[in-house]
Design brief:
Elements: H1 2-14, E1 23-24, E2 30-31, H2 37-57, H3 61-74, H4 78-90, H5 93-99, H6 103-120, H7 127-143, H8 147-167, H9 173-251, H10 260-284, E3 292-294, H11 296-307, E4 317-322, E5 330-332, H12 334-351, E6 357-364, E7 368-375, H13 382-387, H14 403-413, E8 417-423, E9 427-435, H15 440-443
Parallel strand pairs: 4-6
Antiparallel strand pairs: 1-2, 3-5, 6-7, 7-9, 8-9
Length: 446
C-alpha cells in the first residue's frame, strides 16, 4: 500500500541497521527470516499465497508485459498522481495525522510514493516484489493506519491510473486496465494478510510481556512468602512463651486487681498476632489436600454450630439456602473445605453492618457443586475487586491480606474455580465451583 511503502522506505534510509525486520546475507540480499524457522515458514506461506492469488485472478506474463507498457504512459503524470493522493490524505484528519510530520518528511514520502508506483508497473512480480509488499502491512499496524484507510488508498491510486489509461492512446487499453485491476487486487490481498500476521505477532508479544510480568510478580511474591514464613516460624515459639507467661501472671492476681484487665487485653493482642503468624505459615507452607468422600451437608451443618460462638457473627445473621435435594458427596479434603467456608463467612461478616445477613448458598452444578457466600456490606470498587485475591492485599486496618488468597489456593488445589462479584454499596458475592470427582493430575501437589 502506498502509505506504508512511503513510511517504510523513509525509515530504511534513516536507520537501515536498526530495522528488526531486515537481515542481509553476505551478498546484501534482503532475507525474510527474522527469527529462524518460524519466520521462514511464514514467508513460504505468503509466497504460496502470492502464487495462488495470481492463478485465482488469472494474472500471467501477458499481464506483466501490459503493465510494463503502461508504465511509459503513467511516468510523465506521476507528480499529478502524487499530488492527488496527498490532497486526499490532507482532507482527512486521521490519515493526515499519521503521515504528515513536517515538510521534509512529507517530501520524502512523496518521492517514495512515486517509486512505489514505478515498481507497481515495473513488470517484475517475483519474490523481491512480494517481500516489499509484505512489509507494508507491518508498517501500517505500527503507524496506526486502520485497514479501511489502506483499502481506500489503493482505490485512490486505481482511480487515477484508470483515468490515465482511458485518456491515453494506448493500444489494448481495456486489457491493460484488466491487468492493472488484477494486480491491485493481489496487492490488497497481500497487505491484508500481512496486517493479520502483524496483528497476530503483536498479540503474541503482548501475551509474552504479560506472562513475563506475571512470572516476575510471582517470583517477588514467592520471595516475600519465604521471608514471611521464616519470620513467622521465628516469632511463633517466643509468642507462645510470652502468652504463657502473661497467663501465669494474670492468674496469680486477685480477681479485683486493677491490672488484670490490662493483661487480658495483652493476651487478646497476642492471640491476634498468633493468628497472623498462622495465616502466614498456612499460605507459605500449604498442606497437601487429602481427597476423600466429603459430605457437604454435614460440613454446612457443623459450620452453623461452630460459627454461633464466633464474635464476628454476633452482630449478623447467617442464612443457609440449600437445594431441596441433598448435595452430592464430592472428593475433597473435608477440613480444608470447612476452613474455606469458615474464612469466607467470617470475611463476609466483617464486611457487614450491624443486623446484616450473610447468606450461604449451596446447589448442585453440572460438574459438581456451587457454593456462594453473599453479604450485604459496602461492596468493592472494580480495582479492589480485581486485586482482592492478591496475596497481602487488604483494605482492612487489621489484616494480613491472606484470607482470600488462602481460600483461592484451597479451591484451585481441589480443581475448582473462585470468582468475586461486587457492587459498591450493595454487597459482595464469592462464588465457588467444585468438581464432584478429582482427576489424577489435579491430585498432584507442586
Amino acid at each position: 500500500m502506498p502509505i506504508g511503502s512511503m513510511v517504510r522506505r523513509n525509515e530504511m534510509r534513516m536507520a537501515p541497521e536498526t530495522d528488526p525486520d531486515r537481515r542481509r546475507n553476505p551478498t546484501g540480499d534482503v532475507l525474510l527470516s527474522r527469527t529462524g524457522g518460524r519466520a521462514a515458514g511464514r514467508a513460504a506461506g505468503v509466497g504460496d499465497m502470492f502464487e495462488q492469488l495470481k492463478r485465482y485472478v488469472g494474472f500471467d506474463e501477458a499481464d506483466a508485459q501490459r503493465l510494463r507498457r503502461l508504465r511509459e504512459v503513467v511516468e510523465p503524470h506521476l507528480p499529478r498522481i502524487v499530488d492527488r493522493f496527498y490532497a486526499q490524505i490532507g482532507s482527512d484528519p486521521a490519515t493526515r495525522r499519521i503521515v504528515q510530520r513536517g515538510e521534509d518528511h512529507t517530501q520524502a514520502l512523496r518521492r517514495t510514493l512515486a517509486a512505489w508506483l514505478q515498481s507497481l508497473l515495473a513488470g517484475r512480480y517475483d519474490e523481491e516484489y512480494l517481500r516489499r509488499r509484505v512489509r507494508i502491512g507491518r508498517v501500517h499496524v505500527r503507524v496506526g493506519l486502520p485497514q479501511h484507510y489502506m483499502v481506500a488508498a489503493v482505490e485512490v491510486i486505481r482511480q487515477e491510473l484508470h483515468e490515465l489509461v482511458l485518456a491515453s492512446d494506448l493500444p489494448e487499453s481495456a486489457a491493460a486496465l484488466g491487468s492493472l485491476h488484477k494486480l491491485l487486487a493481489i496487492e490488497t490481498s497481500i497487505m491484508l494478510a500481512s496486517y493479520q500476521g502483524t496483528f497476530v505477532e503483536r498479540v503474541r508479544q503482548d501475551e509474552r510481556s504479560a506472562m513475563r510480568e506475571r512470572l516476575t510478580q510471582a517470583e517477588h511474591l514467592a520471595q516475600i512468602g519465604r521471608l514471611a514464613a521464616s519470620l513467622a516460624h521465628e516469632i511463633k515459639n517466643p509468642l507462645a512463651g510470652i502468652s504463657g507467661a502473661i497467663q501465669v501472671i494474670r492468674d496469680s492476681m486477685p480477681a479485683d486487681a486493677p491490672h488484670r484487665p490490662i493483661l487480658g487485653e495483652v493476651l487478646r493482642q497476642i492471640n491476634r498476632l498468633d493468628q497472623t503468624v498462622k495465616d502466614l505459615l498456612v499460605y507459605a507452607r500449604p498442606v497437601p489436600p487429602r481427597f476423600e468422600s466429603c459430605d457437604l451437608n454435614q460440613v454446612v451443618a457443623r459450620l452453623k454450630t461452630v460459627l454461633r460462638r464466633e464474635p464476628a457473627m454476633q452482630h449478623v445473621r447467617l442464612a443457609c439456602c440449600d437445594d431441596k435435594q441433598p448435595l452430592p458427596p464430592i472428593e475433597a479434603d473435608e477440613n480444608q473445605i470447612e476452613q474455606l467456608l469458615m474464612n469466607l463467612i467470617l470475611n463476609a461478616a466483617h464486611a457487614s453492618s450491624e443486623g446484616g445477613v450473610v447468606t450461604l448458598r449451596a446447589a448442585r452444578s453440572r460438574a459438581g457443586v456451587r457454593l456462594e457466600v453473599v453479604d450485604q456490606g459496602e461492596g468493592m470498587d472494580e480495582e479492589t475487586r480485581r486485586r482482592a485475591l492478591e496475596p497481602f492485599f487488604t483494605t482492612k486496618a487489621r489484616g494480613t491480606g491472606l484470607g482470600l488468597p488462602i481460600c483461592r489456593r484451597i479451591v484451585e488445589t481441589h480443581g475448582g474455580t473462585m470468582s468475586i462479584e461486587s457492587v459498591p454499596g450493595a454487597g459482595t458475592t464469592v462464588r465457588i465451583e467444585l468438581p464432584r470427582h478429582q482427576r489424577a493430575p489435579e491430585r498432584e501437589w507442586a
